[in-house]
Each structure stands twice: as structure tokens, then as C-alpha cells.
Amino acid sequence: xxxxxxxxxxxxxxxxxxxxxxxxxxxxxxxxxxxxxxxxxxxxxxxxxxxxxxxxxxxxxxxxxxxxxxxxxxxxxxxxxxxxxxxxxxxxxxxxxxxxxxxxxxxxxxxxxxxxxxxxxxxxxxxxxxxxxxxxxxxxxxxxxxxxxxxxxxxxxxxxxxxxxxxxxxxxxxxxxxxxxxxxxxxxxxxxxxxxxxxxxxxxxxxxxxxxxxxxxxxxxxxxxxxxxxxxxxxxxxxxxxxxxxxxxxxxxxxxxxxxxxxxxxxxxxxxxxxxxxxxxxxxxxxxxxxxxxxxxxxxxxxxxxxxxxxxxxxxxxxxxxxxxxxxxxxxxxxxxxxxxxxx
Length: 344
Prior knowledge:
alpha/beta, Rossmann fold, Dihydrodipicolinate Reductase, domain 2, 9-stranded mixed beta sheet, 5-stranded parallel beta sheet, 10 helices, 14 strands, about 25% strand
């Protein structure tokens, strides 16, 4: 258990593309987080990463797990490398904060969640869109019942990823490495945020396809109808085939108002004519550069996870909450394949 009188000890595993916002966030949190070491199999890339961000190089994953001052490990590897890493961390009594998705399949994700539960270690999953100021403001209003019952939901993710430089890289958009296409790799953030605000989806009817703009194993466009457990209905379209890419938008239509999250901005249109705006416009990685977004959201989530471990509570985003979005993605893909309505 972390000691409240010292910095939270963290080991980092993985130092690829997804590591940049985490590294920037951890440097900004140096007064609270002690990065005890970073490990990656590619030693040259590891040395360069640690030199760039002023982190210590770990000699092995085993060395990180043996460090008594490490409270948790931050796992940033591709999803096909997760199960063994999590099992070893759990066996060593280390808490785990991990990039989305939990794993490539829901079955593997469930095994990871159960491994951590059996070992009584906390498992957090990075869904930084929940930690935008506008998202948190909307969540507070929804919890307070300010808008009345939810009636309809619209989610649009009009992103772009180029073939050259993105999908041409080995493993990108494959089942073996990523576990799927636009849903599990890109739209999973927006879907998780949606579920955190709307509650569960009970059934879907979807189309999933690969457009002629990409040559890849998995889907780059999904459109679907959503039936929510609370009686609301809605629809989504998620794609990486919308050049040059734009900000995702989530619209929640309540009995008394409509709330629209676009990028980092919340706009509330009340039925009595009032309009309220919160947050600020920011990039979200919807274009050719998938890392073109601020690191503030990662910083907030890492700090929240450390606090959760320290004060022995569950973090906002857990392995169990992540399973809900995994199951929704499964249902959308299955509905697209079968051409029929599928229960979640």
C-alpha cells in the first residue's frame, strides 16, 4: 500500500507511440509520482525514451516488480502483450494502470480483470476522455439529474488515419495485435465516455465495413442503432476513413435539455432557451497524427488512480467498467457480421 507521506512509486512498461502523453503527464506530476524505472524490450529505443524524458532505465520487468518502493505499474504495451505482464504484476502485489483496451478479446480482458481481483490489486484502465473538464462537468450534471430523463443519444467519431504511415505499419488494424479496427482502437474512448454518462446499452443493430480508402484486416467504419437499458435510443457512426478528420461529438437529448460534447467543449441547450458552454476546444487525435492532443487528461487520470490506491478505493475507470465497452464493441461487430439485432 502506498504511504501517504511519500511519492507514489510507479514502474512503466512500454515506451512506444502511446507513451508520449503519459511521459509528459508523469513529468508534470513529479511532486506526487516517483517514476522508479521504465522497461521496454528494445534497449536502444528505451535508452532514447528515458533520456528524452529524464527517467531511469529498468534492467528488466522483473527488476521493476522486485522494487519494494513501486506501488503500481503503468502498462503501455500493445494489447497482445498484456496477460503475462498483468499476471506477474498481480503476483508481486503491484497495482496496475493500463492503456486501453484491456486486451484484444473480451475473454482475455475478463481473465485480466479476474486475475487482479483474485490478487486483490487495483486495476485501472486509461480512458482519458472521462477526465476532460467538459466531460467531468457533464457527468456531474447527469448524476444530479439536472436535465431529466435521457431520451436519445447520438455519437459521431469522424476520424482519419492514412494508409501510409499508419495502417501500413506491421500489426496495425489486425486481430492478432490490435484485436480489431476503428471500434476497439479509436472509438473505444468515446464509447466508454458515452456509457459512463448513459448507462448500459441492451441491444444494437449495426453495419461494420472496410471502405475502399484502406487495405486492412478489420473495420474502418461502423454505423449502428443503439437501444439503452433505460429506454433511450440512439445511433453512432465511427470511422477512420473521414479525411482529414474531425472532432468526435456526443449528443445526449434529455427531457429538459440537450448536452453536446464536441472535443473538449460542452454546450447545453435548455428547452427554455438558455445556452451554457463549458470547457475549451482542443485537439483529440482525430486526424493523421493520432497523438495530437493535450496530456492534461492523462495527468488527471494518473493522479486519480494514485489517489484511489492510496486511499483504498476504486478508481473512476476500472477493469470492470472497461468490460462494458468491450461487450458493446463485440455486439456491434457481431451485428454487422450477422446483419441482425444483437443483445449486448
